What does this fold into?
Amino acid sequence: MIGKHLFQKIIRSLGLLLLVMTPSSLVWGETLPAKKVKVALIYTITTPELKEDVVREIRKELGDQVEILSYEDPSVFKESEVHGYVTARAAAKLIGMYMKAVEEGAEVILSICSTVADATCAMRDAAAYIGVPMIMINEEMCREAVRTGNRIAVMATFPTALAPTKNILQRVAREMGKQIEIIEVLVENGFGLEQESFKKLMAEKAGEIVNQADVILFAQGSMAYCEEYIAGLYHKVVLSNPRFGAKAVKSALMEKGLVR
It folds into this structure.
């Protein structure tokens, strides 16, 4: 017969073995996710490079814990560009993509397009009620810009991206108790250029305002590959996405207790 103390030792050993083998159990006090968390990405106009950058940054923050759902409707941007604002029909299409993501199990949604930031912000109350946060890709980046300096240059290739980004900056500045100056820099005919040509155009436009700004902010994620180049050229703080958006996604999932 097995002695009492030996029996207890065997039971403890089996318990530890089961604990390690069970993927959703506790290991050294840490909860591991039992299944992948679904993160939805909503695009309007985009480039293959932007999509790659967004996915890379999301996976950098969340690793294999995440399943990515992507939704795209270029007509939302095209209609907004023609009219100079997000029309009711464009907003309805944007909301439709959000609701489809919710129906398909998304736990958090990242809105990539800076042009539709105001429309995204308007959906926040509904998102809070549903329990699926809608994150504007530029919001945390704008907070960092306000923390960094008072004179902020906003660069964009589309006029429709400037006003929504300025609105975010002004709102977060009020929340942080700061007065800021915003310098608009429209990089006309820049979207879709070959990368080296675009970097030269960005350098030219940034050079026109570099002495007026404490920090340069890129309104569109498609401009991100110019960040290091412009920062090194002018020795200024330059901020771009999608890395700030990815960090905001992780923070939202942590608040929901879905990742650690």
About this structure: The longest strand covers residues 37-43. Residues 36 and 64 are 7 Å apart (CA to CA).
